[in-house]
Design a protein that fits this description.
Chain B: Required for the export of heme to the periplasm for the biogenesis of c-type cytochromes. Chain B: It is a multi-pass membrane protein. The structure holds two protein chains of two kinds. By secondary structure, chain A is an alpha+beta fold. Chain A has four domains: 2-94; 99-156 and 398-444, Kinase associated domain 1, KA1 (TATA-Binding Protein, 2-Layer Sandwich); 183-271 and 367-384, no CATH class; 274-366. Chain A is 36% helix and 40% strand. Chain A contains nine helices and 19 strands. Chain A has helices at residues 2-13, 15-34, 41-58, 68-97, 105-108, 123-136, 163-184, 377-396, 425-444; strands at 113-117, 142-146, 149-156, 186-193, 197-203, 209-225, 231-242, 245-253, 258-260, 263-282, 287-293, 299-303, 306-317, 324-331, 338-343, 347-352, 355-373, 400-409, 412-421. In chain A, the strands form three sheets. In chain A, strands 4, 5, 6, 7, 8, 9, 10, 11, 16 and 17 form a ten-stranded antiparallel beta sheet that branches. In chain A, α1 (2-13) packs across α4, α6 packs across α9 and α7 (163-184) packs antiparallel against α8 (377-396). The radius of gyration of chain A is 38 Å and the shape is elongated. Chain B has two domains: 1-69 and 94-113; 127-281, no CATH class. The chains are: A alpha+beta, B mainly alpha. Chains A and B meet through α2, β7, β10, β17 and α8 of A and α7 and α8 of B. The structure holds protoporphyrin IX containing FE.
Amino acid sequence: MSKNKNSFIDFFASVKLALFVLFFLAVSSIIGTVIPQKKPPEAYIELYGDNMAKLFQVLDIPDMYNSWWFILLLGLLCLNLIVCTIKRLPNVWRMVTLDNLTTDLSRLGKMKERKTYHPSGSINEAASQVKNSMTSCGWKSSETEREGGILLFAQTGPWSRLGVYVVHASIIVIFIGAMIGSYFGYKGSMMIPETTSKDTIFEFGTGKPLKLDFSILCERFILTRYDTGAPKEFLSDLVVLEQGKEVLRRSIEVNDPLHYKGHTFYQSSYEPYNKFLVTLTNNNTAQSERFLAEPGKEVKWKMGQSDITYGIINRQATNEPGVLNYKIWFDDESGEPSTFWILDGGSVSVPRGDTDYTFTLKEFFATGLQVTKDPGVWYVYIGCILMLLGLTAAFFVSHRRIWVFISNEDGKSQVLVSGTSNKNSLAFEKTFEKLTNKIDSDLSA
Amino acid sequence: MTSSQLLGISTLGYLLASAVYIATFIFKTKKSGIIGTFIILLTFVIQTVGIGLRWYESYEMGYGHAPMSNMYESLVFFSWSIIIFYILLEMKFKNRLLGAFAVPFAFVSMAYASFGKGINQEINPLIPALQSNWLIAHVVTCFIGYAAFAVACGLGIMYLMKATSDNKSTESLMSTLPDLKVIDDITHKTIIFGFLWLTGGIITGAVWANSAWGTYWSWDPKETWSLITWFIYAATLHARFTRGWQGKRIAWLAIIGFFAVMFTYFGVNFLLSGLHSYGSS
Ligand code: HEM
């Protein structure tokens, strides 16, 4: 029974399984890059025929990265990592926290890097000299009395042995973050016409409406273009409203979203309407009104006794790419109607007899926002940081240990310096040589 | 001087350097190796100035973006990364013969950028989603990783050539190469270095996608292929570290891994479709 249990654990702890899983993940991931994903069933029948399409449905190929077998494979990777860690970590932890002053002395004489010296002074003198030499080379040593002499020990980077385990743990952390995101998060979109507010998101895929407990007002949407006419930047001025009251105001761009209450609002698209936002202000009375005007249609505004009528009657390109100039016809029943040109997004002052109006015009858009709620993203980011730190420790920091045993051999002092490093032995060889040269010259000085 | 002239000169420079390094290897002429190093350093400076000038030119044109936004610019940057990685390697290991197996990659990349079909060399404006500092971090980290993997592939080829040469005439040629053990060690270290940067590249890409689209991972073909590549190198490291694979097997894995890199880089753009289609112009 216990033997069975052990072989079961050994199987899940084995690196062989890890190699198999990694290989299988790599190969099976290819499928989803070759066969289009998340298309309607008819698309697969058309592309691959009836039988293949049926097989695909059985194996979840149309959404393979969420299929039971792919998730199982990822789960197997996690299980493999966890079991392997549980099995190995205690030993590694022992290496990290080991009291190296209790090391078996007979091992010191067998290490690959070692040097022996015979200084003339007593062992106590030699010990303090060696200690100084080590300190000046950056090795902080501790010491103890051992049978027949004094043992000094110094080390660097014992914790780097944990680097590999930090990398492995980081993978688990990233998976946890991804799972939190897929269970507690969602993605959707909303289209908000300028000057209006909305509080409903439509979930991607299902189209299900989701109501927020706050609403988003789009005050203004701006589209700028390169001189090739291609869009350069979309920008929306958004206001967050809680029970109709403004609580936050922010402009967003494509790479610069708005964060509020765990939701992120990304600028993703826009919709033109071929309508125009016009504000008209009577500067004498400070009366003002906002209109949604369509080109070629008359707009009327009853203001006191006089009726104002205006319309957009023509448009013209300008030297500025993508910026248009609009011709306005304007009448307030005080003499001949005026006509004037106004740039998109501009403002014009219209003097009419003893009154003076300000006329502004801007093309009317709805801003397209993508909305996500992903409470797991910070776990994923923390996992990523852990992974980079762990990899750096695992690859570039080694655990180096130096022992010096100073003993009395036949009435003469003997100094045995020995050391090991768990990786990059070439570089350690050089470091060791530097240290022993220093010890040698200090002892013989 | 315009940037495209300077980059044209660097293509020639890397061709010349490749020829000199290969000649040094075949004819065992130590002196010509020094000439190779000189050409490489000079060409590298010219190319660096060329890339900087292209950056400046994009500001002059009113677009103002780092020269890493389309296939042409990424190929130039790829060759630049290979060369800087190679120069550091040559300095560290004091061996010029590595050049014969590394510098040609940089030349091929430049040649493909200059003469490849469908490679657009113009400086174009960036669509809004690409206007991000994370994009620059993403491209730089990925390409440093790719460059290391290219060199590891060259080292793998070098290893296999030396390990399989058995007749007398090639043996004397191969004897100038470093010991098999040394090549193996450098290959391993190069893969480790590349793996770290590839990891960084995938992470910066995820952060960028999250800041632009709200999804750090969407299994788009390019993302998936970079993960496949990452799995292959992760498996390579484990096979070596815990199962003691060495020599020929690691050399083969270095070559196979680089095929995955190349597919991530080109294959996805030309054969598959996805978010990263910007690279196809
Ligand atoms: C994609 C997933 C994985 C990554 C990125 C990863 C990363 C690493 C890295 C960077 C090292 C250090 C290698 C070196 O120093 O050359 C390592 C070592 C190791 N890995 Fe993984 N690993 C992964 C999955 C696994 C799995 C599933 C297992 C399960 C058995 C595993 C078991 C080990 C073991 C036993 C070591 C050696 C540890 C030691 O010496 O104490 N790894 N891993």
